[in-house]
Specification:
The protein has a single domain, classed as 3-Layer(aba) Sandwich (GIY-YIG endonuclease), CATH 3.40.1440. The chain has four helices and three strands; from the N terminus they run ββααβαα. The protein is an alpha+beta fold and 85 residues long.
């Protein structure tokens, strides 16, 4: 199966209410990994299940990674405002 040419920055809300920010080229597959597979992020493994609450799409991996870093620098309150918009 061909992977997407688009990259996505996403935010998931973990079962404990914390937020996790990541980048992927297949959101559905990545959320599945976070919730069920050992290849999910270490942070989310002990905080399952996670729920997708936000995504942005970019044409290149570099753009998506830059945006991921920017979102990770936001305060929790700022991330929640981003999710609500």
């Amino acid at each position: 199966m061909k992977q997407s040419d688009e990259y996505h920055v996403y935010i998931v809300q973990c079962a404990d209410g914390t937020l996790y920010v990541g980048t992927t080229n297949d959101v559905v597959k990545r959320i599945h990994a976070h919730n069920t597979l050992p290849t999910g992020a270490r942070y989310t493994k002990s905080r399952r299940p996670v729920q997708l609450v936000y995504t942005e799409t970019y044409a290149t991996k570099g753009e998506a990674l830059s945006r991921e870093i920017a979102i990770k620098k936001l305060k929790r309150s700022e991330k929640l405002l981003l999710i609500q918009q």
